[in-house]
UniProtKB/TrEMBL annotation:
A Pfam family of this chain: Glyoxalase
Sequence ranges assigned to domain VOC in this UniProt record: 2-116
InterPro entries to which the protein is assigned, alphabetical: ArsI/CadI-like, Cadmium-induced_rsp, Glyas_Bleomycin-R_OHBP_Dase, Glyas_Fos-R_dOase_dom, VOC_core
Gene Ontology BP term (one): response to cadmium ion
Coiled-coil ranges (or none): none
Organism: Nitrosospira multiformis
Superkingdom of the source species: Bacteria
GO terms for MF: dioxygenase activity
Keyword field: Dioxygenase, Oxidoreductase
Protein name (database record): Glyoxalase/Bleomycin resistance protein/Dioxygenase superfamily protein
Amino acid sequence: MKRFHVHVAVDDLNANIRFYSAVFGAEPSVRKPDYAKWMMEDPRINFAISQRGAKAGLDHLGLQVDTEEELSALRSQVATAEINRHEQPDATCCYARSDKYWITDPQGIAWETYHTLDKAEIFGADVRVETGEAGACCAPPASTKAETRKAVSKCC
């Protein structure tokens, strides 16, 4: 079964935890010094926030699945969009180990489809393509976003 995923970058983690806890009527199911996540059934959503230096606002959207078979089906489904894709098998991100598959929509918003394999003790160890610095693991490479915008501008 699919679960909708939203990740928002925030400037003040504690203020946002208070706000979203009030909105959702629940405390986060995961809380770290730079990250919080609510896994809810009504609505069925994985809502995450992080304070890791990214510009505040929507970071990315996604669909989380329960099995490798569902992830494979989603990969096939999103491949028909003919937009650049980026695979991240066995990625460590957001205090979890997951198999991920990224696309970027015509507006430049990153979408991930993923299957969580296990918990992780670190946020992630990915490196920003633009600067070579350690950065947010929750995004496809910048080249994927740029190529997607270029492809979309040609066709639409």
